[in-house]
Description:
There is one protein chain. This protein is an alpha/beta fold. It has helices at 6-14, 17-27, 39-49, 73-86, 97-104, 112-117, 145-148, 162-175, and strands at 35-37, 61-65, 92-96, 127-130, 136-139, 151-152, 185-186. A five-stranded mixed β-sheet has the order 3-2-1-4-5. Strands 6-7 form a two-stranded parallel sheet. Helix 4 (73-86) links the parallel strand 2 and strand 3. The protein is globular.
Amino acid sequence: MIIKNEEDIIASIQEDKWMMGLLKCAQSLNLPDWWICAGFIRSKIWDVQHGFDERTRIQDIDVIYYDRTNMEKSLEKEYEEALKRLLPAIPWSVKNQARMHSVNNVSPYTSSIDAISSFPETATALGVKLDERNNVILTAPHGIHDVVNLRVKPTPSFYGQKEQMKIYDERIRDKNWRAVWNKVEII
């Protein structure tokens, strides 16, 4: 199977019991404007595009949400602990995007999707969640062209911004994606 479009991405996730289990676990917290994002989706797509039979290791499972009514970092840790009680072997990371602008030194985000659109790479600026019927919902603020075509490039939030491009370049070096997915093109 090769992933060509959003429907293929959604189908590949819905057919993956492990991914669906993690989505249902995150859904159980009833967080406002929640998504699992970044490497969770990108790695799945790249594994499929490379024909891998085994899932590649994911450093963490990024659960994001948006709640301006309580921006205490300690609450994020409580949510992480709740997820760890449900699935202890998973490296959960929970972040409230309503406070992350201060960490990232940017203007406040207006939603989780706004935050996802500001991720460093277009291939990572992805999120998935479940609707009330457990259907997978995908958000890709910069589209899916780059991720399905194994291309890594900076998002508009990073491109051409000196300090942001430094972060982008460091991530490219540190992530070393080509060591795992040798068909990936870095721009």
